[in-house]
């Protein structure tokens, strides 16, 4: 069984996924795969540099992800172009990883901030939303990523609104309290997913 785990920026998706992994679940992180497919030597990187220009490449040959993020979140047409190049490649690699992991674990999590927006929810049997209020999203992301508040709001605008994400969820973890509170919810859902 594949569970799609999603949540807004700064909601704690990775922390929740790690808690499930500690209990024996497997997980694949779409963000990690998204970084892989634009590494030097990958076809997507060449297409991106051809489209946006060499100024989006760092001296070491890697993609300047912060500069590209800033550019595409200012221009929805450019963001759509980028997604048309990256999303099919991400999906293909995700499927291969999920298939491999499903042979080894009782269930597998597909961790994706854009699970619903990208159509990746079609790959899963259930959806799990990690939820926190907007003010917690903002404070955690400011502390973690060192980006501007304006850029965080642009990222939030590209994600499904909280209410819509919650309406699409089969299961929800409230990650607005301490780690122990989160782990109790993970343990309960782990038992439930194993029973399914």
Provide a concise account of the structure shown.
This protein has 196 residues and is of the alpha/beta class. It has one domain (2-191): Rossmann fold (3-Layer(aba) Sandwich), CATH 3.40.50.300. The chain has helices at 13-22, 30-36, 43-52, 65-74, 76-102, 134-145, 149-158, 162-168, 179-195, and strands at residues 2-6, 26-29, 108-111, 126-131, 171-174.
Give a description of the structure.
This protein has 196 residues and is an alpha/beta fold. The chain has a single domain (2-191), classed as Rossmann fold (3-Layer(aba) Sandwich). The chain has nine helices and five strands, in the order E-H-E-H-H-H-H-E-E-H-H-H-E-H. The chain has helices spanning 13-22, 30-36, 43-52, 65-74, 76-102, 134-145, 149-158, 162-168, 179-195; strands at residues 2-6, 26-29, 108-111, 126-131, 171-174. Strands 2-3-1-4-5 form a five-stranded parallel β-sheet, sandwiched between helices. Helix 4 (65-74) crosses helix 5 (76-102). The longest helix is centred in the middle third of the chain and has 27 residues, at 76-102. The termini are close together. This is Dephospho-CoA kinase. It is an enzyme of class 2 (transferase). Its EC number is 2.7.1.24. Keywords: Kinase, Transferase.
